[in-house]
């Protein structure tokens, strides 16, 4: 008598979203929302430190301001998208991966821009470097949160549930 065991795994994924745009101020009370707001504020403060300096035209200041303003606008737009549930409406776009890559890149760019600004003897640049290092930490934390969410299979807004079922079937046959 021979026995054969056959195992089948069935994975069902259910995504639940509300596909309409609406204002939801609760996002700013979540950890990702707070981190995003902190990054926006730090971007702006660093930009202002450089811009109000007499030496803002120098390449170090221009590079820092470019990093700060691109971070400010991207984070600001993403904050608006989350507040109005645009990410939920367009849930098929991999928002978390986009933000993960952006935040990781911006943490690295802020490390470079802040180091270059801190190496000057200009006090405004050194103050901007401090806020840049703080923004680097903020973007690093945001990248870590996004990494955990991507690894868990989550979507940016809404909910996704995954059901895994395993079925085993044993077949016995008579052999002569």
From TrEMBL:
One GO cellular component, as annotated: membrane
PROSITE patterns assigned: MARVEL
Keywords attached to this entry: Membrane, Transmembrane, Transmembrane helix
UniProt-listed InterPro entries: Marvel (IPR008253), MARVEL-CKLF_proteins (IPR050578)
UniProt domain MARVEL: residue ranges: 27-151
Protein name according to UniProt: MARVEL domain-containing protein
Pfam families: MARVEL
């Amino acid at each position: 008598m021979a026995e054969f065991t056959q195992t089948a795994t069935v994975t069902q994924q259910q995504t639940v979203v509300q596909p309409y745009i609406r204002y939801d101020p609760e996002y700013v009370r979540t950890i990702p929302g707070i981190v995003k707001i902190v990054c926006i504020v730090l971007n702006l403060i660093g930009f202002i430190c450089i811009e109000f300096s007499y030496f803002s035209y120098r390449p170090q200041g221009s590079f820092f301001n470019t990093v700060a303003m691109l971070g400010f606008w991207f984070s600001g737009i993403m904050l608006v998208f989350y507040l109005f549930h645009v990410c939920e409406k367009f849930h098929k776009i991999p928002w978390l991966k986009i933000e993960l890559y952006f935040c990781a890149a911006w943490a690295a760019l802020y490390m470079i821009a802040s180091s270059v600004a801190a190496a000057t003897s200009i006090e405004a640049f050194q103050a901007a470097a401090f806020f840049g290092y703080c923004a680097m930490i903020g973007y690093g934390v945001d990248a870590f949160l996004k990494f955990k969410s991507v690894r868990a299979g989550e979507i940016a807004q809404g909910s996704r549930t995954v059901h895994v079922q395993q079925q085993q079937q044993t077949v016995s046959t008579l052999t002569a």
